Amino acid sequence: MKILITGATGFIGSYLVKALIDDGHICRCLVRKTSNIENLKSLKNVEIKYGDITDKSSLKGIVEGIDIVYHLAAIGHVSAASFKTYRIYYMNNVMGTKNLVEECLRERNIKRFIYFSSTAAMGLLKMPIVDETVKCRPRTPHQKSKYDCEQLLLKYWKEAHFPVIILRPCMVYGPIGKGEFFKIIKWAKRGMLPKIGKGKNLTPIVHVNDVVQAALLAMHKGRLGEAYIIADRKSYEFDEIRNIIVKALNIRRPYPYVPVVIAKMIAILLEMIAKLYGGIPIVNHFNIESTITDRVFSIDKARRELGYEPKVKLEDGIKQTIEWLRENGYI
Fold this sequence. Notes:
Layout (H helix, E strand, L loop, with lengths): L1 E5 L4 H12 L3 E6 L6 H4 L4 E5 L17 E4 L11 H25 L4 E5 L24 H20 L3 E6 L1 E3 L6 H10 L5 E2 L5 E2 L1 E3 H11 L8 E4 L5 E2 H12 L7 E2 L1 H18 L7 H8 L7 H7 L7 H14 L4
Parallel strand pairs: 1-2, 1-4, 2-3, 4-5, 5-6, 6-11, 7-10, 8-13
Antiparallel strand pairs: 9-12
Helix pairs in contact: 1-6, 3-4, 5-7, 7-11, 8-9
């Protein structure tokens, strides 16, 4: 099939494009003129189209002859907290998605539009197990922009029968990824990864290869108008994740205990400093709250309807990730 991918130069997008090419498909990649496309140039059956989802005129003809759309393009920072930041995210992520959908509707030939959302769209839900039936309660700019994109797409599904499927990965890790998990590795190496609170701090995580597996399955399976949580088989105690990281780094680092109250005070202070200088704090009180809250997601729906089954073992995935970061001079 002929497939359009937005966000093809990003972490997940670059893995997805390669997997689709290996699977025999033809990929049209929408990229901005400022994007680094060296990895895409080396692949066969890849067509480069320059454009920007925030510029409606640049999308004309982008879905001509396309069967499937994978929409990954977005901006966002999980530690952003200001209303001003939310407006920026909204204009880029939500309105950009609207522009792309309207171009798809104009062509009327799309079989499936697979949107990469996030479990962040659900907010921080304090319950034993979270599945897709739970009401979303997004609070931060990052969470709200993801949720608003989902609601926009579901509105198009209900009103125009737009064939959308929503994927909600949790924190994604793997080689070339330099997001939240990369920060955790850097903090662990510097000895700046304390244990916050006395709980288990259950943390959901998923390897990029398993996310791509779910994406390929969604091309043929799953119900239109539905969302699917994509995670590992279980959430891991943060102690376990840290121990695996430290072992893979072959180092010894302190793991001090920090009371929740102290951690929140530090986070609020960092937020105040960031607000004063117009930046984004490296951590905020929402991050602390997320860390101390046990987050467990059910993947039963993805297993049942997509045939999804996580394959990458956590220890193997972390070791592989750290080896890549070390070889490429990032740690």
